[in-house]
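step=predict obj=DUF5675 domain-containing protein n=135
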Amino acid sequence: MELILTRSYYPEGTNGKLRDGEQLVCSTIELPWRENQRMVSSIPEGRYELVKRYTDKRGWHLLVKNVPNRSGILFHPANDALKELKGCIAPVSKVIGPGKGTDSKTADSRLKTLVFEAMERGENVFLNIQKAKSV
């Protein structure tokens, strides 16, 4: 499975659309791009493997592997990137402003269901992050 995340960048946050082929899975929010600095920046564009991971704090979630000079990058619920994220990606049901969204827990659950089912079928899952084309 190859998920495509197309992102738009703003000073207050990064907004994205996550697709499986032509199908929109959910929108996303992230921190603004700040040169890939830990804890304050979104991650660089590129192709990353996603793996299923369990922690006591977050339960089952998705970990983004092999991010240059970064570790512990997750998909997890958040509705305000600047207040709730430290470099991770938050699935949201609707983007309401730069780095802000709504109903993140629902979007996160939908994403995990899709990806975990693919993994259970033995598929490797990749995230391809790219800049949205200007209109």
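step=describe
Helices lie at 81-84, 104-120.
step=end
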